[in-house]
Each structure stands twice: as C-alpha cells, then as structure tokens.
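Q: How would the structure tokens look for this protein?
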Amino acid sequence: MTEKYAEFDNVDKAKILPDIQIKSYTFKVTEVALALVALVAVVTCVALAALVATKGTKDDSNAMGSTSAQTGGNALCLTETCLKSAAFVVAARNESVQPCDNFYKYACGRFSKVSPLDPETSSRTIISNMYYENEVKLKNIIESPIVRSQDYSAERKIKHFFQSCTDTYRKERAKGSPIINKIFPNIGGWYVLGNWQGENWDFQQAFRKVSIDYWTAAFYTFRVATDWNDYTRRVIELDFAGMSMFWYYYLSPSTDKYRDDLKKYMRNTAEYLIRDSNITMDNTTMTERIETFISDAFTIETNLANITGRTMPTPDPHAHEKRVAISDLTTRLGTEIDFSAHILYMFDNANVGPSTKVVLREADWLQQMNDMIADLGTNKTRMLNNYLVWRMMDRYDQDLSWEYVHANREFYVDRYGTPAFLGTWLYCFRRADAYLHDALGSLFVRDHFADENKNTVHEILDVVKESIADSVMTNTFFDSQTKEAAKHKMKMSLDKLGYPDFMLNNDAMDTLYSTLTIDASDYFQNVLHINAYIKQSWNKLLKNHVQKVQEWVYKVYATYLEYYNPWNELIVPAGILQFPIYDHALPKFVNFGSMGSLLAHYLIHGIDHFGGFYDANGNREDWWTNHTTQEWMKTKKCVETYYSNKTMGPYTIPGQAIPQTVPVNGQYYASEAMAETSGVQIAFKAYQKWSRQNGGEKMAPGLGLSNEQMFFISYAQLNCFNRNDNVAYNNAIRGIVSEDLKVNSVLAQITEFSQAFNCPAKSPMNAEKKCNMYA
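A: Here is the predicted structure in token form.
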C-alpha cells in the first residue's frame, strides 16, 4: 500500500542506481525537421481524405459497429486540432488488424514505425515522448539569456548551474581531481592510492561524510517521510540501500554478465583515479590494489544483495510500537554503525534529539547489515574504506571528465542493450531536474503552458467525478455505508491541476533558493553546495507541519498523475495536460478517452482497496465495512484468475538460449487492473453524459469511425509503446504489465467496447467471463 507513495517522501537519493537510468529518447535536428514535414503532409492528406470520405463515413462506421448517436449527422470536425488528432490516429493505427482480434495492434500497430528505436533509444511511449518534449522546451529555456541576473535570482541560479554542468572544457581539465582533492582528504584517503590511514581510519566519521556531506547511499539510506498516522507531520525513515545494481543481479545464475560488467566499470574508474592522482605506482602494485579494491567493494555489495533476498519489509513500520528512539538504535540494530551520531549530524536543525523516534522500513535488513559488517574479518577496515570510495565513484563518475562518463556508459550499454547514453545536455538537465525542479517548473509554466488547458480540464474532471458517484451507488460489492463514505471522500477531495500559483511569483522563487550558492565556473562545487542545500531543506521539512494546500510534491512538468490518499488529493501536473493526451481544443471523445480514463483511474484509487485505508481527511481509517471487503475479495479473485493465465514476451535476452516469457502475477496486479478497467468504464460513461448534456460533437475526419469508437482508440493510443527486449524483460520481472497486454485485457472486459466495435461473443476482445468492477 505505501509503496504507491514513494514519490511523496522527498527522496533525492536514488534507491539503487543513482546515476544509471533508462532514458527516454533523443531527437536529432534532422529527425525533428523530417517529423514536422511528415506531420504537415499527413495532416494535409487527412484533410483531403476527410472531404472525400464525408459521404461514406456513416456506412463505414456501421460496418464496424454502432454509429454515434450524438454527432449531429455526418458533420466532421475540420479544425487544425481535429486534423492533427486524426493524423496522430492514422500514424499509429494498423488497419490490417481486426479490432476484435487484437485491439492494441489495431490501434498502435504502426507506433514502432513512427516512433522507432535507434542506437540512442531503449524505450518510447506516448508518455515518455511527451516528457522528452517537455525536456526540450526546458532545455531551450535554461540555455536562453538570463533575464533576472541578480545574485539572489532563482532564474540565474538554475541557468548558471546548467551552464557549469555543460562546461565540458573545465571538466576535461579537472579530470578526476574534484574527487581526489575535494573528497578523499575529508574521508581519510583511499587504500588504493596509499594515502589511507590504515587501522587509524575513522569509519564512523568517513561514513557520515560520505552519506550526508557527499549525499551518497551506502549501507543504508534515510529520508523524510509523511507520518502514516498523522499526515500533518513528517518522520525520519531508515531503509536499505548501498548496491550498484538491482539486488537480483548479484545472485542470479543468469546474470553473470552483469556482474562482470560491474567489475569492469569499477576497474576502469579506479585506473583513471590512479592516473589523475599523479602518484608513482608500478604496474604490479597497481593491479594488486585495484583487484583488492574490486573484491572488497563487490563482496560487500553481494552481501547486501543476499540480505535483501532473504529479508522482508517491516509490516506496518509506522506503528508507534515499532518505532525506535535514536538512542536505542544501536541496541536494536547493532553497534557497527553509530546510528545516533549519524542521524543527529544529518538532522541538526530539526528539533531532533536522542529520544526522537524513527521508522525502520526494513528492520531485519538493517540488523543483518550490521551483523554482516561485524563478520567481515581481519581486513574489515580496508574493505569498508574501499566500499565507501566505490559508492562515491558510482555517485560522481558522470560529474567528471569524459573518460569517467564513458566507463559508466559502457556499464549502462551492457546492462540495457542501448549503445548510446544520455549525452551532456540531457544528463545536466536530469541533474537540474533532480536538484532544482521547482526553479525549472517555474520557467516551464511561464513559457510553455496554456492556462486554458488548466481551466478547461475541470470540465472533464467534474463529469468524471459525477460518473464515479453514480457508479458508486450502483456498485454491487459496496454496501450502503461504504457507498456514502466513498461519495463523501470524493466530494471532499482536493484537485491540484497544472501548477501552484507561487511559481509565478519571483519573490517566492528567490526566497526558496536563498541559501543556495551557485557559481557558473565550478560545477563540482555547485553539486556540493546543493548537497548542503538539500540537507537544509530536509531539516525544514521535518521541523515544519505539512501544508497540503500549498505544497506540491510532483514536478509540474511531469507527465504522470497520482491520487495521494494521505492528503486526499488528485495531482495532475501541467506537463501531462498537453497534446496528444489533452488539449482544450481537442474533441471530447479524445479528451475523455485519454485524460478522462487517467483521471477516473486515479480517482478510483481514492475509494478502492488502497483508498479504503484513508478517510476524507487523510487519516488512517479503514472505512470499508467487513461486508464490502468480503464482496470485493470475490471480485478480486475473478480478476486474479483472468490475468493469471496471461504471459508477457517472448523476449530475446543476451546470454539466454531461448526467448524468455514472464507470467503475469494476477494476485499482485489485480487491484491495479480493477482501477484501470473501471477508469475506462467510468470515463466512457462520463463522455456519454457530457454528450447528452451538450448535444454531441462532430466526428473525426477521414477515419470512418464513430465517436464512441474514437473514445476507445484514444484510450488505447495513450498506451502505445516501443522498447527493446532488455528493457521490456527488466520491466516484466519487476511485475510491470506491458501496455499491449493491459489494453487488450481491459477492453475485453468492457461490454460497451464490444458493442462499439461489434465484437462477437467469445472473440479475443470480448471476454466470455467479465468481472465486476467499481463502475
């Protein structure tokens, strides 16, 4: 339940792979130019086809299913936005596929051709394409001349940070010296360079510096999180961390190559640091020390992976009886790490003391991690030094010169099968995104967001909410008490659409970053200053009460939604309120099919099995009755059975003799599947209600499809994707259901879809057994 809200815990540290990401995609200038030319050509063709096809529209629609009863005859929408939308449908659709056989292939069968993978791309989706377009917009803004150049200007700070990061000349001159000169002296040196303090080395002090001053996840991590029992307050959480890869890759017999790739990455980085330290070392000594370094660091990470594989998260870790006072942590977890000194050093301005209680998300893991350190043997001090140094290498490699970046890049390529990397500007953008996202968001909404989209999305949201209220009253597994509570919670929910007003206020933005120092000529020092700024920010978060109306926990240029039950609020950032998912000028069948389905899906999470643990004020209260829970379990069992016979793949994976398939875990996925299916059902009912109230709308040009059919195509095309097998397989083994399986499984459960496309009984897109949902 709580993993859904990880984004709200303000964790700027990466959990497992801090600097290795599956990127979205990049466009070359020529690709953009050709795409624009192609779009103009397609739109022109569609417009001409629309005029020709006007007469045949009704007949074509009847051949596939029912025509729209709300269209006002054969009238076609020929506005620029309608033509653009129709062109988008044509580009992705594969008309050679029968919609009742495989609707995803029908709606998205050509998406891989219009959004192909290339050496720079591992995955493309509609959502990631939108996000990348937002990145390009932001890149253009932060590379533009500074308007407000005062020292205190938030605009100046974000633009100078980006400028310093993209200054490859200074990075090439510095090589590895920032780590060698600015970090190693402060952590007691490094075994490989021979400046390590040996048995006199102070592990506890070095660990505090690495983890807090240099903001590097080693052994465990901490975060400021919302208190599950009082959502106006925040608490300190301790959790597992400290590995360079997903824990499974250290242990599985099928991932030997990943382990070898990691060791190669470690070896290359160590060799570069030796070279850049300007010390004299013969080849034999250098080889011996490097191999010892690799063995030490890799052994500790493998030990952590073994612990991860055999431990489970703490059940209900926020329960008061499971919290532990800071002064009692060594008694509870072990003495190898001085948790008290570590936490008090981090939270030195948040009214935190020895009696402050913290939450242990992985109590067993933390205890066994301490036991593991105690059992490292006679070389424990050296091993700990090498491990901490490696964690920082992995954290900062991409902030150094090109050779270090390339060492990381090779590991990335071997892991994900993509022979390219982020590149300087995109990496620097991601750094700005991680550290200074409010400053970026302010620039984005000022320059690239149509306020009319923010204002008009309320119209769709209001009708969707009305349809949810109607569906709640007819729901068969909610009893009367649960129905009333669900309606009340929806009525009391807070809708955050677009962006917060403070982002348009220069004084507010300047104050937000008033303690941060940024120098356009010293990137690495800027990163260290940001580390200190984040520490300050986390202290403020912990000390102050939550102000849920004013606070926005998502980036406003993000392209995803969330329903955050602890604050009973729906969050829809400006970044997703854009074409092709939403635009105020798009036909409503598009807006309801795509954005409406998303809104309904996430609103369902306010009243479903997850939302049932939080009342209308965000307090933890199980307001589902026992009767509702029992009846819901019957429906969930139906959904589990429906998905448990489905598989994802096959995927061709390097090192595997045969293609791999991954079964869907129906028990795990059932709750999400119910929200997804119900979201589409409710959005469709909302569209029908809007059509009745507003007299319908004109049809899409040149497609021969009814508005109802276009609704379902809009939903399906929201999920179009193209990704390589490595990434797809990694998603599948983590339990992420692929979009093609999701779309087909959802729509086959919806009677209105089968009616719209006239799908015969027992056809692939008309499931014989339909499960009861929230709609």
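Residues 219 and 287 are 27 Å apart (CA to CA).

Residues 1-44, 46-63, 66-73 have pLDDT under 50 and may be disordered.

Upvote if useful.
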